Amino acid sequence: MANAPDFDVVIVGAGISGINTAYRIQSNFPRYRYCILEARDAIGGTWDLFKYPGIRSDSDLFTFGFQWYPWNRNNPIATGESILEYLAEASSKHGIDKNIRFKHKLQHASWSTEYQEWTLSVTRGTKATSISSRFVVFGTGYYDYSTPLQAHIPGLDTFAGQVVHPQFWPSTLDYTDKKVVVIGSGATAVTLVPKLAEKAKLATMLQRSPTYIVALPNRSARSLVDYVLPRAVALRLKRLRWIVTSRLLFLFCRAFPQSARWLFRRGTLRLLPPTMSFDPHFNPAYDPWTQRLCVCPDGDFYKALHTGRADVVTGTIRTVTPAGIQLDAGGFLDADVIVTATGLKMQLGGGATVDVDGRPVAPADKFMWRGAMLQDVPNAFFVMGYTNASWTLGADATATLAVRLLRTLGRNGGTSVVPRVRNPEALELAPLMNLNSTYVKAAAGAMPKAATGGVFAPRGNYLADEFRAKYGGLDGLEWVRRGEGDGKA
């Protein structure tokens, strides 16, 4: 008889996804042995890694926070520091922190059909070890922590000032009274510019094309339910209201794009300083929610423009010189610091390699079942959030689905469950993430495949996905007992 594995479940990553999954596992399977492998020396994931000025959420915390530990502050948009404190509170209160193994980086995961378990190769500094587990949950997010998306900017290596990427912001950088140019127009750039403008001589956002920047009041008004219902109930209702409201906004933008464009234009014009034109700086070529909307709490981005210490320039770069950036249209931007906020390098599984019975798994060759499991990879869940809603909602839908499958296996006496694609030629391909952002397009050859319908379709609606996770069909799965299965990968 084979020895029992070290753990029932190993969770990779102690960020929002990992902590949420840990709660779902320990509350549903109190006798299960589990641990969290965290490569860094602290919890938080993204919120521990990114240290750039003004780092904050770009989703409301009522839905970005945990369903089982509601965000109880009034501000829907929170600073990175506040989010880290919240994660520490949640994990400590529920004893999750006791199961975290810090500075443990997963290098490789190998599935054995014979033994029906995973062997995980882990490094801790210079030491290597292995851990066995029945199940693995990759709560590692969707981007490469060690390597940002490389922007090909001509002449950047000739720049005499400092070049910074937000993913690795140096704590010693002093930009006081300096001219800072932020290249990019995504959430990071929109977050950085107002904060940089507080100290910099001028903070300029240089964008190739504009994005939708939506001002959101950063205080949640108290309603009648806050006064008449118990606090826990009121917080759950507030969370549900934000879920529904966000979903309705997304559906409205997709169904009535011209009306949505008109509304966003009207809101932006009301906030712009009179010296700045709407077109071309705030008039995107794409419809709302074709790419993710950028949020600025209390309109801080627009307020920074009114101070004269922030600016927006739309154009393409001809070359970077020692003194700044030469634009194709002829303009020149003086710069002391250049920030390349050009996106993230997408990655599945935190960079760990995977094999099934010795055969390497290439994620780009596989379909994702219910947005949570890779085709032909047993007992492994990949936690993916939403691009059109808060990440945590999608992460929780994955955790709910994982709990259901683990419970079904236990009830049926099975040892593993694996998605299979019987007729791949019958599946019509669809993007896994329904966005056309530059960093998403750049990852087309690295991320798994999706289909236009059925169990291999991408997710995007939390209420529907949560329902399917609990009660939906389990088509496309193969249930295995020890000694069965072909280990196909």
TrEMBL record:
This entry's Gene Ontology molecular function terms read: monooxygenase activity
Alphabetized UniProt keyword annotations: Monooxygenase, Oxidoreductase
Top-level taxonomic group: Eukaryota
Keyword Oxidoreductase (UniProt) = yes
- Swiss-Prot/TrEMBL cofactor(s): FAD
Q: What is this protein called?
A: Flavin monooxygenase-like protein
